[in-house]
Each structure stands twice: as C-alpha cells, then as structure tokens.
Design a protein that fits this description.
The protein contains 3 helices and 11 strands, in the order ααβββββββββαββ. By secondary structure, the chain is α+β, with helices and mostly antiparallel strands. The protein has a domain of about 140 residues: Immunoglobulin-like (Sandwich), CATH 2.60.40. The protein has a 7-stranded antiparallel sheet with strand order 5-10-11-1-2-3-9, with no helix packed on it. It has a two-stranded antiparallel ribbon with strand order 4-8. The protein is globular, with a radius of gyration of 37 Å. Pfam families: Sod_Cu. InterPro entries: SOD-like_Cu/Zn_dom_sf (IPR036423), SOD_Cu_Zn_dom (IPR001424).
Length: about 210
C-alpha cells in the first residue's frame, strides 16, 4: 500500500513538472534548433544589432564619379615648369588642383589664377583681338563668370616658394574648356581682389589644359 501511494505521488509530480518544462523550453516565435544539443536564438522581430554595427551603414553609399580629367603643365616665360594643374569634373562640380613643381620659382604670397578662353601659352604675344604684346596674352580673356572672386581662388605660395591649391567650383562646365579654342590656366604675379575681373598684375606662367 505504501508503494502505491509513493507511485501516485511521483506520477503527480511528473505531471506537474512536465508542463512547466515545456513552457520554459520554448518561447513564441522561437526558431527550431537545427543541431542537436544547441539552443536556438530567440527571435524578437527586430534586426540583429551586431549586423548593423558591422556594416556601419544606414543606406546606400553616395559615390561621386569623375567623368573627365584635364591636365596642364604650367611653365614660366623662360619655358621652365613652375607648376602642374588638374581639373576633375563630376556631374555637379569640378575639382581644381594646382601644385608648384619646385621651390623658389614663384614669389611668396598670393597669386591670382584664371582659366582663359584660348589654349595657347606664348610669351610676348598679343591677344586674340590684337593690341600690345605681353606674356601669355595669347591665352585670351578669362572665362565667365567675371567678378572679384573669379572662378578660382588665389594660389598661396609659402616662404620657401612652394604652394598647393585644391578647390571645388561649379562656375564653369567641361564644355567651356574643351571647345574649339580649348583653354589654359594662367598664374599672375600677385593677387588683387579689387580688380573687376581679378586679372590685375602680370601673367607669369601659363599651361594649356588637355585630356591627354
């Protein structure tokens, strides 16, 4: 009789524990484990935060592609190279880089830069419309827009005669530099932002822009 009572108590305990074990073993929306002896991850309906942290991105990356690059070797009146220039175009703007190629060839200070309407750099030459000769006047007039700032900011040359300029602008289009007359980049001997078209001073260096 004692054995029957004990067995009844054990059966009652098993019946009580079994549902609790089943409730704690599974939770709503929990995926089934695919490997024996493993505990499946709990699905909460939210993205995995660790996956977001690894990517560090909340949307597609915006890449600005360069569509055209122009280059120029900028030389002085004596024909020696003073600087190099590149103009990189994207769909929205252009990036202009000018870098001196040797120390002491340009005087320290600010030097105006201009993109001109003719791709011809000749010392002691006259402009397309004629007139008195001057260095690199063959490069023509500056391209639009006119104004104290012009399409480019001045190049600053340090005390050791070296300088680098990187600037972006949407003041001109690729077509303006690649028309029939091409174009050039001109360096002036000084900077004068009070001039109506920022061309005060003498042209001391010039380079024809080309895609080659």
């Amino acid at each position: 009789m004692v054995t029957s009572v004990s067995q009844a108590k054990i059966a009652t305990a098993v019946l009580f524990v079994a549902p609790v074990a089943l409730l704690t073993a599974c939770s709503p929306n929990e995926p089934v484990a695919t490997q024996p002896g493993t505990t499946p991850p709990v699905w909460t309906g939210s993205p995995d935060p660790s996956a977001q942290a690894e990517g560090h991105s909340t949307g597609p990356e915006q890449v600005t592609e360069v569509t055209k690059t122009l280059n120029a070797v900028i030389t002085g009146v004596d024909g020696s190279q003073l600087a190099a220039a590149t103009v990189e175009f994207t769909e929205k703007y252009a990036t202009v880089t000018v870098q001196t190629t040797g120390a002491g060839k340009l005087a320290p200070g600010l030097h105006n830069l201009q993109l001109t309407s003719v791709g011809k750099c000749e010392p002691n030459s006259v402009g397309p419309a004629g007139g008195n000769p001057g260095d690199f006047l063959s490069a023509g007039d500056p391209i639009a827009p006119a104004g104290p700032t012009g399409p480019l900011v001045p190049l600053q040359v340090k005390a050791d005669g070296t300088g680098t300029l990187v600037t972006t602008t949407d003041a001109f289009k690729e077509e303006q530099l690649l028309d029939g007359d091409k174009s050039a980049i001109v360096i002036y001997d000084k900077s004068d932002t009070t001039a109506a078209d920022q061309t005060a001073g003498k042209r001391v260096a010039c380079g024809v822009l080309s895609s080659g």
